[in-house]
Design goal:
Elements: E1 3-7, H1 13-22, E2 26-30, H2 38-42, E3 46-47, H3 51-56, E4 60-63, H4 68-76, E5 90-93, H5 99-111, E6 115-118, E7 121-122, H6 125-130, E8 133-139, H7 141-152, E9 155-162, H8 166-194, H9 199-208, H10 214-224, H11 234-251, H12 256-270, H13 281-289, H14 299-303, H15 314-321, E10 327-336, E11 342-354, E12 358-363, E13 372-377, E14 386-396, E15 399-407, H16 411-425
Parallel strand pairs: 1-2, 1-4, 2-3, 4-5, 5-6, 8-9
Antiparallel strand pairs: 6-8, 7-8, 10-11, 10-13, 11-12, 12-15, 13-14, 14-15
Domain 6-phosphogluconate dehydrogenase NADP-binding: 3-162
Protein name: NAD-binding protein
Domain PilZ: 316-422
Length: 427
């Protein structure tokens, strides 16, 4: 029986390695974080001191690692896999990584006279435990056939995608759909909850209708029960959506739904939910709708308008009383010159007012309509530079008042700006 070097014992890797041991494979395992391998030791596995040792003492290497940087470290770093390869070995990476890195691994491993497959999986931790993962595989077809029994010891199906990097590309296209579906499920459940509809009843409608999806089956009850134990973390979902975005940009494919869902998961990560299950995106929507999606509130309370005596938020209070904001900022102003060059300078300004999609800024510096400026808030704000277009100009004494439309600002950045302004409006 082949000896399998298994590297990466996270949410997916640990049950995958355990299934190999149960199928009587000899497994030498390694994990960058110690203390995760007690189960494998009980099943008869042997721990390696490094990826290098695992490579030297195995016939096949399988890796299941979190991201591109970690994969590079395990393969190319000190005591990495590449240095331990022996001619004729097979290397299988089941991580979700960029196709470019998969192709690079394929070439470097081929240069060592070994075979490489990029074989990411679909199916979260329950499928990894049950051995029902689906492998989408890129690489040489003969190598896929030679390693099919090994892959089927961890999964239910192996689908050949094409040459090296094709498995990685298929996984990113697949996970773009997963992210979009998950965001759509949460958004629909939030609409229903705000309308006073029982969440469990609504989930039955979703699962029995045209909105049925794997995400509804996997995440619907988790959202209702506030169970955010990790099957697939929000941070990893965001990582995959970012990789999908880079891939689609390189291919020239417009992806408005991908970008919208990526922005939503960025909002969830910025709110501190990255290490929870991706279903924790529901917490962001619960904050927006002012209540639980799980329906702990009575239906009539969900639709009941806010009490007229309720304390308004900072922004609402500012709008009601028209309290003037006095938030200092800097503006980078760029002007085109001849031969395609441009010159720039920074000028002081003050944020005076804010709307859903724009700002009012005052300055003593004269600007022109339709000019683009880059806004820089104080470092304490924790806000990125923001590009705005001047759409309106009013003059009062020596002050210019500029109505500015924000341009290309992601949803999570708009929320950061809103929170920063609320803090000042509430002072």
């Amino acid at each position: 029986m082949k000896t399998i070097g298994f590297i990466g014992l996270g949410t997916m890797g640990l049950p995958m390695a355990a299934n190999l041991l149960r199928k009587q494979y000899q497994v030498m395992y390694y994990n960058r974080t110690p203390g995760k391998a007690d189960e494998l030791a009980r099943l008869g596995g042997e721990e390696a001191a490094s990826p290098l040792e695992a490579a030297k003492r195995s016939d096949v290497i399988v890796t299941m690692i979190s991201n591109d940087a970690a994969v590079e470290e395990v393969y190319y770093g000190k005591d990495g896999i590449i240095a331990g390869l022996k001619p004729g070995m097979a290397v299988i990476d089941s991580s979700t990584i960029s196709p470019a890195l998969a192709r690079r691994l394929g070439q470097d491993i081929a240069d060592a006279f070994c075979d490489f497959l990029d074989a990411p999986v679909t199916g979260s931790s329950p499928a990894a435990r049950d051995g029902t993962l689906l492998f989408m595989v890129g690489g040489d077809r003969e190598t896929v056939d030679a390693q099919q029994d090994l892959l089927l010891a961890m999964g239910r199906e192996v689908i050949y995608m094409g040459t090296s990097g094709s498995g990685a590309a298929a996984k990113l296209a697949h996970n773009a759909i997963v992210g979009i579906n998950a965001a759509g499920l949460v958004e629909g459940m939030a609409i229903a909850a705000k309308a006073g509809i029982d969440a469990s009843s609504f989930l039955r409608v979703v699962q029995g209708g045209g909105a049925a999806s794997k995400q509804a089956d996997l995440k619907g009850r988790k959202i209702i029960e506030q169970d955010f134990s990790v099957q697939f973390s929000l941070a990893l979902m965001l990582k995959d959506l970012k990789l999908s975005s880079v891939l689609s940009d390189g291919l020239g494919v417009p992806t408005p739904m991908l970008e919208a869902s990526k922005s939503l998961f960025q909002t969830g990560a910025a709110a501190g939910h990255g290490e929870e299950d991706l279903a924790a995106l529901a917490k962001v929507y619960e904050q927006w709708i002012g209540g639980r999606i799980g329906g702990l509130r009575a239906p009539e309370a969900a639709a009941k308008p806010a009490s007229p005596t309720a304390e308004p938020s900072g922004v609402e209070r500012r709008r009601q009383t028209r309290v003037s904001l006095e938030i200092p900022l800097m503006m980078s102003v760029y002007q085109w010159e001849q031969a395609g060059a441009f010159a720039g300078q920074s000028v002081e300004g003050t944020l005076r007012d804010v709307s859903e999609d724009g700002l009012q800024i005052s300055s003593t510096f004269p600007l022109e309509k339709d000019m683009f400026v880059v806004l820089h808030f104080k470092q304490e704000a924790g806000l990125p530079p923001m590009t705005a277009r001047i759409i309106r100009i009013e003059r009062s004494n020596n002050q210019f008042h500029y109505g500015c439309m924000l341009s290309g600002l992601a949803l999570y950045q708009r929320l950061q700006l809103k929170e920063y302004i609320e803090r000042h409006a509430g002072d």
